[in-house]
Amino acid sequence: MVGRDGKQMESQMLLQMEEENKKLRDMVRSDGKQMESGMLLQMEEENKKLRAMVESGGKEMESQMLQLENENKKLKQELALSYGKEKMGRQFVITSWVGFFCVTAVIVNALK
Prior knowledge:
InterPro entries: DUF7900 (IPR057222)
Pfam family, one: DUF7900
Protein name: DUF7900 domain-containing protein
Coiled coil: 58-85
Structural class: mainly alpha
Keywords: Coiled coil, Membrane, Transmembrane, Transmembrane helix
């Protein structure tokens, strides 16, 4: 009888342990789902914040791009104007030197 009682006790203990394991598994599953849902909510909030930052940053970037394009156009115009002035200055200097040499040559020939 002791053998049967021992086996019955073992089987009862095994059943209790299996029930406890099932309860623990259920708890872990429910906690895991709660943790997942909490993490998903946090991730969604962070995504919303990041989207808001990108949208506001995108608007700022567009305005900066427009400003830079306008500034680029102005600088190109100023560069073209500066190049034209520099070319005229060079022509003036060359013409002045040529004129100086011509006048000097005429004076030297006249004095001979």
